[in-house]
Model the fold of this input.
Amino acid sequence: MQLIVLIILIISAYLLGSIPTAVWVGKGFYGIDIREHGSKNAGATNTIRVLGWKAGLPVMIVDVLKGFAAVALIRFVQSPPPGTDQFVNCQLILGGAAVIGHIFPVFAGFRGGKGVATLFGMVLAISPYSTLVCAGVFLITLFLTKYVSLSSILAGFTFPIAVIVIFHTSITSMVIFSIAVFVLLILTHQKNIGRLLRKEESKATFLFARREKKN
Done:
C-alpha cells in the first residue's frame, strides 16, 4: 500500500472517530453539553446516565460503528491479503486512529470520551471471536457488580488472554496490541480504580432501572 494512501486512510479513520456522538446528541436534542453532567464523560454510558436509553443507545451504536468502519476502510483500497501480518497491521493503525479520534475529537475541542465503545467496534472488526469472549466477561461482570468501569477493565484483561491463550494468535502486532488495550484501559480508568478501591465508585444502577421497577 502506498504511503500517501495509508496517510489518507489514517486521517479518514481519525475523522470518523472524532464524530462526537454524545456531544452532538446532547446539544442537538437536549440542549446540554454531556461533558458538564454526570461523570462528565462524552460516552454512551454517561449519556444513558444523564439522558436515558433513548439518547444513549444510538450514541453507543454509532460509537461502536466508528471503530468498525475505520477498520473497514482498508477494504476500499488495494491492500495486503486479509489475515497477513501486513493486513492486520493496517487494520490496527486505522482502528487506533479512530480510538484516538474519539478520545481527542477535533470536532469537539479535543475533549472526548474514554474510547471503550469505539475500541470495541475496532477489535470486533479485527478479532471478532476474542471480542465476543470479552463482551461476555463485560456483561457478566456488569450484571453481578453494576460497575461499568470494573467490567471494562476485566474485559480488557480478558482480551490478551483470548487472543494469545484461547485462539493462539501468531501475529506479533496483534499480541502486542491486545496487551496494549489492557494497559490503555488501566490508564484511562485510573480515577475509577481509585474510587473502586475506596468503595466510592458509583454503580450503574440506571442501566437496570426498568428491570428493577418491574420487579
User: Anything to note?
Assistant: The mean pLDDT is 90. The first helix runs from residue 3 to 17. The radius of gyration is 17 Å. Residues 1-114 form one domain.
